[in-house]
Amino acid sequence: MSGVRRSRIAGCGSYLPARCLTNAELAKKVDTSDEWIVARTGIRERHIAADGEFTSDLATKAAQEALADGEMAIEDVDLIVLATATPDQTFPATAAQVQKKLGMHHGAAFDVQAVCTGFVYALSVADNFVKAGQADCALVIGAETFSRILDWEDRGTCVLFGDGAGAVILRAGEGDGTNKDRGVLSTHIHSDGRYHDMLYVDGGPSTTGLAGHLRMEGREVFKHAVINLAEAVDEALEENNVTPEEIDWFVPHQANKRIIDAMARKLSLDESRVVNTIDRHANTSAASIPLALAEAAGDGRIKAGDLVLIEAMGGGFTWGSGLIRW
Ligand code: ACO
User: Fold this and answer.
1) Domain carrying residue 217
2) Which residues does a 6 A CB cutoff place in the pocket of ligand 1?
3) Residue 1 predicted with pLDDT over 60
4) Nearest 5°: phi and psi at 66?
């Protein structure tokens, strides 16, 4: 190759469990209402994995759809990077189970843990493997079963999350190093462990020996999200010498419609250029961005050559952004 190695998007796919849980159903279990949830978050319903349906099952179905979308065989893939905070087991990596379920017996598969920023982290890792020449074709998956770590009696958190999976395939291509290249143009990842107590799970193999439940200071997370995401987005635009007007599609992590709206306002982006799935998916953590990408690419909104901006913020705190020329 004489030019610059780039990771091109070669396919994408998604999977949502069959069971759909509405706000009205939730209001029968905890002291909440459809009106409160919609007004504060934009969420109307979420999908919940069935008994015996694991994160690796959701991930495998999303990966299979991505392979079909890219008209590719699993033999073409040499790397699986899976972002999840809800692995099937403490070990082995859920990615290795997905590898098995896809019938892949070569290459490497591992998990990345950055909670809701997981997909941006996984994309960053896989993009760097491809750019460095250590992989030619990577499956990047975000998959979660947050329903398994929710405290279903805590109305402040249980109404916010859902289960699902999304996947994209990165394939090595060539560019000339400008923002007109097709592929991942840049990724920007950050973390600050001082904010642990604002968003964490109160268990784990080394502490309690149990999986634990999600705990969150929602208002504090909200405040940090707006500041950190704005900085990460500016970083991506500056790095690539791109103005907000040049963005074709804004595909944010789907945590809260109010956070998404605040970011779109900051970028002066019309709602018609923002991909929103929060009403139907709720917050699926690491799965939310690839689920939204698969939906918008699948229905023809995102087209070849479009400039796509992604961003996310999650426990850690972690946060990040990325620019992709589709
Ligand atoms: N139904 C009805 N009332 C509720 C509910 C509910 N489900 N939950 C909380 N309330 C009440 C509170 O008790 C409070 O009542 P009070 O005023 O009598 O004390 C009132 O509603 C307001 O509560 P707040 O927490 O201040 O509400 P807020 O407007 O901040 O919305 C929310 C809460 C939706 C959680 C918001 O703060 C948020 O979205 N935060 C960010 C979440 C996020 O982005 N997470 C990121 C990633 S997640 C990850 O990494 C795993």
Assistant:
1) 1-326
2) 32, 36-37, 40-41, 115-116, 155-156, 159, 199, 218-219, 221-222, 225, 255-256, 259, 283, 285, 313-315
3) no
4) -65, -40
Give the mutation target among 41, 198, 222, 224 for probing the ligand 1 site: most ligand atoms within 8 A of CB: 222
In angstroms, the CA 152 to CA 171 distance is 41
What's the rounded Cα separation, in Å, for the pair 323 and 311? 9
CATH of the domain at 300: 3.40.47.10
The amino acid sitting at 62 is A
Q: How far is it, in rounded angstroms, from Cα 141 to Cα 112?
A: 10
CB 232 within 8 A of CB 321: yes
* Structural domain count of the chain: 1
Strand partners, 191: 318
pLDDT in tens, 111-158: 999 999 999 999 999 999 999 999 999 999 999 999 999 999 999 999
Query: Residue written as tokens 């992604």?
Result: 310
How far is the centre of ligand 1, averaged over its atoms, from the C-alpha of 217 (Å)?
A: 8
115 CA to middle of ligand 1, Å? 19
Residue with the smallest CA separation from ligand 1 atom 3 is: 32
Residue 293: partners with Cβ closer than 8 Å, 6 or more residues away: 12, 166, 168, 251, 275, 302, 308, 310
Which residue is closest in CA terms to ligand 1's atom 1? Answer: 32
166 and 14 Cβ atoms separated by less than 8 Å:
yes
pLDDT in tens, 197-233: 999 999 999 999 999 999 999 999 999 999 999 999 9
Closest CA to 213 of 284, 285, 153, 149: 149
Rounded distance from Cα 219 to ligand 1 centre (Å):
6
